Amino acid sequence: MARHIVARTSDIPPGGNKVFGVEGRDIVVFHVNGEFFALLNRCPHEGAPLEKAACVARLTSPEPGVYQRSRVGELLRCPWHGWEFDMRNGQSWFDPKRVKVRSYPVAVESGEELQKGPYVAETFPVHVEDSYVIIET
Ligand code: FES
What we know:
The chain is mainly beta. The chain has strands at about 15-20, 25-30, 35-40, 55-65, 65-75, 85, 105, 125-130, 130-135.
C-alpha cells in the first residue's frame, strides 16, 4: 500500500474536510472530534460529492419518546438523497452488507517520523584538483 502525505493537520480545520486527488481518485478527508477519516468522495448511490455531506450524530431510541445522540459528527448524510454512512468504515446504515463508501486508513505523523520520499535528484561526485572543478558522470 503506497503512502501519500497529503496535508498538515492544520490544513483541515476541526469539523471540516478537504479533497485530495490521489492516484486518479478524489479522496475526502474529514477532521471530526480530533480524528481524521478518509473516504472516496463519491456516494455509491448516484455519485454525489461526499465533501458536501452533512456530518451528523447517531440517533437511537431505546423507547418511544426518548432518543439519544452519540458519535456526534461521525455520520455522513449524503447531500443529494440523504443516504447515511459511517465515517469510520464507509458502511451505510440501511444496508451495511451491500452498500458502502470506500474508506482508507489515515495516519497522523510528525515531520520527524516521516520517511524520506521516493524521489531523489540524481547527484554526481565533485572533486577539486589544482583549482579545476571536475564533475563525474
Ligand atoms: S447520491 Fe447519495 S444518496 Fe443519492
